[in-house]
Amino acid sequence: MHPAYSVIFFTTASGLGYGLLALLGLYAAAGLIPADRWFGITGMAVALGLITFGLLSSTFHLGHPERAWRAVTQWRSSWLSREGLVALATYVPAVLFAAGWVLFGRTTGWWGILGVLAAIGAALTVYCTGMIYASLRAIPRWHNRWVVPNYLALALATGGVSFDALTRVFGLERPESALVVSIVLAASWLLKVIYWRDIDAAAPVSTSGSATGLGNFGDVRLLDPPHTQDNYLQREMGYRIARKHAAKLRRIAVILTFALPLALSLLLLTLPSIPALVAASLSALSCMAGVVVERWLFFAEAKHVVTLYYGACEV
Amino acid sequence: MTGLPTAPSEKRLGLVIDLDTCVGCHACAVNCKEWNTGGYHAPLTDERPYDTDPSGVWLNRIHTFEVGEGESGRLVHFPKSCLHCEDAPCVTVCPTGASYKRSEDGIVLVDEDMCIGCKLCSWACPYGAREYDQDAGVMKKCTLCIDRIYNENLDEIDRVPACVATCPASARHFGDLADPQSHVSRLVEARGGFDLMPEMETQPVNKYLPPRAKGGQAGGPGSDDKLMPAAGGFLAWLDRTLSD
C-alpha cells in the first residue's frame, strides 16, 4: 500500500495526542498530578494541538475536503465514519476538562469525570483508527487481530513518553511514572514483534489462481497488463518495498520506538532531575521518530490482493 | 446510506464473462471508456493523454494471463470490471453515504456529489474496480451502464452495457442473475460459472465462465510431430523414401 504522508502524520500525531490526552485525563482526575495551570495549558495544548493537526492533515489527502463533514454520517457501517464521529465527540469532554483545569484549577470531582470521559474517547478513537485497517479483508496484513492492539499500544507508548517528559519539564514527575512508561514500551514492543511474526508466517490468503479462478488449469502468470503505463490501482495499492530494506527499517523502528526509549526510561529511575529531563526528552523524540518509521512500514509492507491482477502470485 | 440492502434484491443485474471466447481485443474497454466519458461518470479523466506516461480512469480493464505449462498451457484474456458484489465492502466502508447498492437491481454506484475522495472504497475492493479521478477528486466505477440499460431513448436491443453491446466475440453477457431462467443464469449453470476470490466473501454478482477443455489437435507445442504422415499408405512410403 502506498504510504501517504498525510495518513502517516495523522495516525502518528493523533495517536500521540490521544495517548497524552488519556494519561493527562486519568492522572489529573485521580489527583496524582497537581492542577498546575501552566502544566495544564501546555499538556492539553500539545495533546489537543496534535490531535487537531492530525485530523486536519487527514483531510489534506481528500479529493473534496470541503465535504469532509459528510464523513460523520455513516457510523452504522463505516469505521472511518465512526472514527470521525468519536474524534469530534471526544473534543467535548476534553475541552471542558481543559477549561476546568486551566481556568478554575480543578481536575478532580465532577471535572475529573470529564477527564475520564476524555480518556475513554481517546481510547475509542484510536480503536476506530485501528479498525479502519483491520476491517479491510482485501489487505491480509491489516486484516489481522494484532493490528488494533498495536494501534492502541503505540498511542499509549508515544503518549506515555511525552507525558513523562512533560511532567519533568514542570517538575511534577511521579516517582512511578518512568516504570509505568517502561512497562508500556515493553508491552508495545512485544505486540509489534508478535504482529510482525504473525504476518511473516501467515499463509497466503489469495493467489493469482483464486483471483482469476483459473488455478485448477495450472500456474497463473500475468503475460500482458491492461495498459502500457501504471494506473491508479498500481500506484495506490501496488507499492513495493524491497525485503532487505524492510528488514533494516524494522530494526530502525525497533531501536527508535522501543529499545532506546525503554533503556532511557529504565535509566530515569536512577537519574537526578536535570539529567532525567534530558533523558526523558530524548526518549520522547526517539519514540516519535520511530513510530513514524513503524507507520510507514505498516503501509509499505501491506500487500493488497488487487496486485494479483498485476503480476503478484500470492498475497 | 452505506448500509447494504437488508433483503436480497429481487433482481441481481450483472455480467457473465466467457474466458473461453474472449479474444483480448480490448473493444469492451474502449467502448466502456467512450460511453462513460459522456455518461453517468463523465468525464473519465485522462492525464497527459498524448505524453509518454499517460494515465487515466478506466472502468473496465483487460488483463492477459498465461495458465499452465507446455501442452496443457493456454493464454487467457481476462476482462475485469466491477462485480457488483452482494456483500460489497466498498459500500460499507464509505463514510459519507456516497457509495451505495441499489435495492431494486443490486447495482453498486457512487454519488459523485457526496464523495469526498478518501479512496477507502478502493482499498476495500479486492478486485480493483474503483478508480480515483484525480481531476474530479472523486471515485469512479462501473455503473453497469445504468444510463443505457434503462434508457428508453435507445432501441431495446441496445439497452445493454456498452461493453456487452460491442464485444465482437459475444464473450460478455448481461442479464438478471437472480432469475434462474435468465440466459445468464443458464450459462452459469451449463458452463460452471465461478466467482473471483470467493475467499474475500464478497459474493460477486458477476460470474466468469472457464475456458473449455482443449481439443489438442491443431497447433501448440509438439504439433510438428502430429503433422508427420501416418504409418501406412503412399505418404508413409514417400516419407520413408525421402528420409533415406
Provide the descriptors you would attach to this structure in a database record:
A: 315 residues; mainly alpha; Formate dehydrogenase/DMSO reductase fold; B: Alpha-Beta Plaits; three-stranded mixed β-sheet; 8 helices; 11 strands; 20% strand
Find the CATH topology of chain B.
Answer: Alpha-Beta Plaits
Count of runs of 4 or more consecutive helical residues of chain A: 10
Q: How many helices of chain B in DSSP terms?
A: 8
Helix content of chain A: 55-70%
Strand content of chain A: under 5%
The overall average pLDDT of chain A, rounded, is 95
- Helix/strand-derived category of chain A reads mainly alpha
Q: How would you describe this structure to a colleague?
A:
- The complex is a heterodimer of chains A (315) and B (244).
- With 315 residues, chain A is mainly alpha-helical.
- Chain A has ten helices and one strand, in the order αααααααβααα.
- In chain A, helix 1 crosses helix 10 and helix 6 (177-201) runs antiparallel to helix 9 (243-268).
- The mean pLDDT of chain A is 95.
- Chain B has a single domain, classed as Alpha-Beta Plaits (2-Layer Sandwich).
- Chain B contains eight helices and eleven strands.
- Chain B has a three-stranded mixed β-sheet, with helices on one face. Chain B has a two-stranded antiparallel ribbon with strand order 2-3. A two-stranded antiparallel ribbon of chain B has the order 4-5.
- The N and C termini of chain B lie far apart (81 Å).
- The relative contact order of chain B is 0.21.
- The mean pLDDT of chain B is 92.
- Classes of the chains: A mainly alpha (315), B alpha+beta (244).
